[in-house]
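Exercise: predict the fold of this chain.
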Amino acid sequence: MRMIATYALKTIHELVNTCPILHVSFNQPDSPFPMMLPMIGQMGSFTRPSSDVGEVLELYLHGYVSSRIINLSRKSNGDSADAPSGLPITVGASHIDGLVCSSLESFIPVSGKSQEHKLP
């Protein structure tokens, strides 16, 4: 079988650790749509505090103990003996390299009509 991708531990862990916000998505059992939450997270290990970012680490997410995602993860213990316990999630990390400031003159009005906008 051909390998499509690799999981470079150091690269992924450094990306997560330097990203200000992680987007965590999961499926709610009572909704057909996935839920996405912006969260603060960090790769690390409480059992091995001196671990390097190139080693296998856990993802720690900041959140309240009775939040929706925590409550769902407690309830998702697997329906059968073969099913893994826990809540499957997807984590996205985005870096912002820069912002572009623009004047109001570059915006087109929602109505589509050509209007002149003057700043005070």
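Check your answer against the key: The CA atoms of residues 11 and 98 lie 21 Å apart.
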